[in-house]
Amino acid sequence: MREYTFLIFPFLLLIFSCSSDPSGSEEEKEPDSYTILTDIDPQGIGSIEISPNQLTFEEGSSVEITAIPNDGWSFVQWRGSVDDTINPLTVMLTDNIDLTASFNSLSFATHGGEEAELTEGLTVTSDGGYAVTGYTSSTTGFAASNNLNTGVFVIKYTDNLEVEWAKIFGGSENDISRDIIATQDGGLLVLGEAFSNDGDFSASGFNKGSIFLMKLSSTGNIQWVKKYGGNEYDQPRKIIEDKDGNFVFTGTSHSVDGDFEGLYTESQIPSDIFIMKTDPLGNLIWVKTYGGTSSDFGNAISTNSQGDYFITGKYSSNDQTFEGLFTGSNSADHSFIIKTDNSGDFVWVATLNGFDGSDNIEGLTTYGLSDGGVLISGSTNSTKKDFTGFTVTNSAAFVAKFDGMGNLSWLKVFNGSGFDYGESIIETNDNEILLTGRTNSKDGDFSSASGESYDIYLLSLSSSGVLNWIQTFSAEGVDEAYNLQVTSNGNIIIGGTTDSSEGIFTATRTSVNETGPTSFVLKLNSDGNLLKDD
Asked: Taking Cα atoms as reference points, which of 436, 323, 422 lies closest to residue 381?
């Protein structure tokens, strides 16, 4: 063994000598270099900055990597070679790095299933979150399976727009929700139409569908369901909880029996406005109806600090409740406000008429109006009578203020060359008036919109109706805003329906239905801008 070792040693020495630099100095090794590859999830909603800004880095280099979200998005975490939530991220390079920056939306969320979701109601909940309701025929994306037909959905969001729970309620027939409110006990109350007499709506109902109230706990469990109406089609629209904890809602009725027994004569059909009041457990206290011998519709309801109620909508009658109030064509629809006392008894009626076109009120609020007045919003294609002096090409959004006696204080119209609709209106604690709706104009008051399909808009007015600003939110599809709320910290919440997957709705759609509409919630700051990451 010793002899073998002795013989190989000169050979190794010879190899080493041959590989050495003839000059006697060893060749210096080139330092290693590395690359950094980055990506963004979801695509297109932010950027990444690398400092120093270069393609390759020597081993041991210190590099700062910063994820920069677009407005309306927030950085969540790094994934890949490094899993961390630090931003900016500093790394010491000893190898190639592959990083993905993950972002979440601060300002918008969508939720749905494989079919369409049509949003009808939005409320701010007692825990600072939000709840939306509507109807869908989806069987995925919700906690309960729908029974083959249209069902009622309720989605509960946290303040950060994360889905807390999403449920479907219904039976074997078509069931539709129209509005939702947060109740004083921390729960939710859903108003709608039930055609089912089984499943969640097994309580006895009427032949052509029933008005329903469904009381939910804060976690979405049913506490009770009550039905109202008659044997014809009765359609509820909006509901409030008054200062005594009672529930009061309005809509349109066609029945002359059931809860409407004795309130109509056959000559009053086809439709009238109704107002119903129940106690906190849904037991009916009273029902009142208003209208004439043509079609009249109740769309919205509000109350004031004295406990009076205000109903608004559209009418085409010129008798009974609306006797002598309109001298134009009875085929056109015109806007009204009815004030009742706490017992639902008539106090006064005021109208907004255009004579040559149709006018319809969708939004109504009395909250924050210390003078006892009423704010309304809607749409019109009229240019005469109350709308004299305004230019309306197709359809215009309007806002009007009435005083406590029903006298028109002021009227403002907003439009372009397309179709513009006013939906929900609210007054903030700072006496700012906010209106949301939809537009397909790209000129006039809505010059910032795309003019393709429908875009969401939000406008701000002073308490005297002076325009402060208009914001529009564009995407490639049809986006429609129907509901508006303001949170305690001044953020603005808009609810509606979208079939877009680009623009402001990039990468937010959770629905497997890539083409049909789905429910959305849009969260903005008090200036109407998308929220920014802190």
From this structure: 422
Of 9-13, 124-128, 420-424, 502-506, the range with the lowest mean pLDDT is: 9-13
Q: Which residues pair with 92 in a beta bridge?
A: 62
Digit-coded pLDDT (tens) for 397-411:
999 999 999 999 999
CB hemisphere CA count around 516 (13 angstroms) = 16
Residue with tokens 């700072």: 430
- Following DSSP, what letter does each residue of 104-150 receive, concatenated? EESSEEEE--SS-EEEEEEEE-TTS-EEEEEEE---SSSSS---SS-
pTM of the model: 0.85
Nearest-angstrom CA–CA distance, 270 and 272: 7
Nearest to 248 by CA among 196, 204, 303, 178: 303
Structure tokens, 50: 């690398």
Q: Distance (Å, rounded) from C-alpha 501 to C-alpha 506?
A: 5
- pLDDT per residue over 39-94, tens digit each? 998 888 899 999 999 999 999 999 999 999 988 888 989 999 999 999 999 999 99
Closest CA to 359 of 377, 347, 346, 341: 377
Letter string b/e over residues 167-179, b meaning 16 or more CB atoms within 10 A of that residue's CB: bbbbbebbbbbbb
Domain ranges in the chain are 33-105
First to last CA, the chain: 74
CA distances from residue 97 to 58, 63, 87, 155, 485 in whole angstroms, order as listed: 13, 11, 16, 40, 45
When the candidates are 2.40.50, 1.20.1540, 2.60.40, 3.10.450, the CATH number that belongs to 33-105 is 2.60.40
Residue 277 tokens, joined: 């009041």
Local structure of 268: helix, strand or coil: helix
Output the CA–CA distances (angstroms, integers) from residue 326 to 350, 356, 375, 442, in the order listed. 11, 12, 21, 34
3-class DSSP state of 267: helix
- Per-residue pLDDT at 439 exceeds 80: yes
Residues in the chain: 534
What does residue 332 show for φ and ψ, rounded to 5 degrees?
-90, 155
Secondary structure element (H or E) that encloses residue 10, with its range: helix 2-19
Please report the sign of the dihedral spanned by the C-alpha atoms of residue 350, residue 354, residue 360, residue 361: negative
Query: What is the Cα–Cα distance from 240 to 183, expressed in whole angstroms?
Result: 9
Token pair listed for 19? 């590989």
Q: Report residue 384 as tokens.
A: 């005469």
Q: Tokens in use for 122?
A: 């939005």
